[in-house]
Amino acid sequence: NAYELRKHEKDFLARKDLKYKDKFVKTVNDLENNEKMLLKDLTEQDIATEDIETFLAYVKEYESVFLDLVTLQQQIGLNPKDGLYGSLRASVHKVQESAKKSNSNELLAIVYDLRKQEKDFMLRRDLKYVKKFESIIDKLLASSTLMTPERVQNLETYKKDFLSLIDAEVKKGLTSNDGIMKQMRATIHKTEKMHAKMTEDILKAIEDKFTQIKIMIFTLIVISIILVLVFSFYTSNGLNRMHSKKD
Asked: From CA 46, how far away is CA 197, in angstroms rounded?
């Protein structure tokens, strides 16, 4: 059902495992098939189906946004060695190794400061750490005493990889109130609200239908009783007249 979609979505966000994407898609397909069968049954019973059609449209919208999120997360990386995370990890390793070989405590301290800003962003998801990172690395790149062509290349790759990751994270949403995350939250809200309305309206429509059927059955019973009584009355009168004539 609709609540299973939320579960699969949250499991994917927490574990970054594509099996939850597959479960999400399967649940959507099962939901569509079930709702289409219900749609057919309600149509046959002349019960309004607009809520179901709207609900299915919202479910497909939810699926589309979720799949966009999955694609973006794959680009970012499903684990620290994958995607943009993997590229950043590799470039960081080169920068750190170069700083260690330089035997310069100053360079090593600056590189550690860059790593601190990077990790602070990952932990707090605040763009102020990105600005600090850029300020520190740009000053380092401009240093004539600490830089060599190899170190410049390694640092520029590190900066590019980190900022590419930031761009993707911003697109995804640093919180649930921005980026694709915000779009998905809005779609989920619409879907769940429509699901509740659809369930309530369908139950009421079915109840109304049963009430109509009960009234119809009661009416038919009353009419049948009246017809039996009328038939009995005329039959009795007919028999009485026949007996009167014989007498």
From this structure: 19
Neighbouring CB atoms inside 10 A of 66's CB total 24
Structure-token pair, residue 221: 């019973």
Residues 6+ apart with CB under 8 A from 102: 108, 146, 151
Encode pLDDT of 121-134 as tens digits. Answer: 999 999 999 999 99
Query: What is the pLDDT averaged over residues 100-117?
Result: 95
pTM of the model: 0.81
Least confident of 40-49, 65-74, 115-124, 182-191: 40-49
To 10 degrees, the CA torsion angle through 30, 33, 35, 36? 170
Instruction: With CA atoms as reference, report the closest residue to 65 among 194, 148, 220, 171.
Output: 171
Tokens representing 174? Answer: 């640093």
Instruction: State both tokens at 169.
Output: 């994270």
What are the CA-CA distances from residue 90 to residues 16, 58, 86, 155 (Å)?
21, 41, 6, 12
pLDDT of residue 152: 96
Tell me the C-alpha distance between 13 and 7, whole Å: 10
